[in-house]
């Protein structure tokens, strides 16, 4: 929030963008009367009533888990909250800064940081603990970090419980399930070798799985290559059990993302590293498919912290967190306009998607489908761009869009989550409703209403968003959707409820639904409960 006023001196408090200070201080507080003096003891009338007990105020600010923006507003409107509080560990910090620091220290990825590492992160985020807190919260929100999650991969699936236990099921030709075998699993099975290791995030690709632990270590299994065509040259060997990625041991990783030709990871400090697909400098470096060393993503994001990465077929999106607000950068192949810059040219270095600023949209979550992309704004608006085949952009047609465009059909919906796949898009609203549009192949959109002929239309393509009534009928709030993001595999979809129940539909011929099919079944049109409790 910029501390700007009309006719009032500008105040710099590392405030967080939200609304002008004028909107906060326009209403003057009533002047305290002399007879109220007894409320303050010997203090001057008009002072903050609890100024004699700042420790109580600090306790309230911390335990109430105030939003960083609210802490910034307190600083901007009352001198009591911006003056030094004289509390450890830093006597010069204000109460709002101390509250922000306390809330940062509750975060799992922040706790093990040394004082020097914390100060470096503070400077990288803009010099304020409130901005560090916003950075940490943003990462938790868009990645479900340290929360239960399910990942619908190409032919196989990964589910992570809220306690960090990992289950895998489905195709296993390359050992991508991590059980030490190459046998298909039709039911969710825990990965026993990870016992005692808490996993906070998972990423899947064709024949490959990567898991990130709460200590920042990365485990990989399946194909041993970090980048290749899905049906191209295999790695020199397959790994059938989780193996620590040695080249990442000195980087505290919080997220991994697997594209078709490359792999990317995000560090605790918000730095992006990529593996492979460096031929012709496509990601700003020159490497081959056998490369196992991470390379920092150079260019505009070198000094800007990133909170989320999303990998498409041949491009990468980065959600960045700056003092001025959130923004999205893209890099890679520009075919179809999926980089969002108004052209179809490639970008070798990350480039800011300026259209989101022109739309006055503060991005909170990004999603990179195989050929199209989507973002959810703080105000609940959804923007899509890229290839529009089958209606996956939700604009009522199949046209390509080379810059982000608001999905007008969702104007009455406040979105909080978006997921994209191969020409398919899902949106979750703040009340837990789910909307889908795009390619209906494999019944992965979740629409299974019967027509007059008694035949379901579950394979129909949708050019505009439609409420997924089959999920609505479950009468539980949905919090996450995951769908297959591959052009070579039949798609399936997971829907996760707030209570930790997992529902699956779509293609299940490889066991990827976690549900055994009968007779000649290859898919499930209606959501069916997977017998696993992720809560």
Automatic annotation (TrEMBL):
This is RCC1-like domain-containing protein. PROSITE patterns: RCC1_2, RCC1_3. The keyword Cell cycle does not apply. The keyword Protein transport does not apply. Signal peptide: none annotated. Keywords: Repeat. InterPro entries: RCC1-like_dom, RCC1/BLIP-II, Reg_chr_condens, Ub_ligase/GEF_domain. Residues 148-482 form the RCC1-like domain. The lineage of its organism: Eukaryota, Viridiplantae, Streptophyta, Embryophyta, Tracheophyta. It comes from the Eukaryota. RCC repeats lie at residues 164-215, 216-269, 270-322, 326-379, 380-431, 432-499, 500-535.
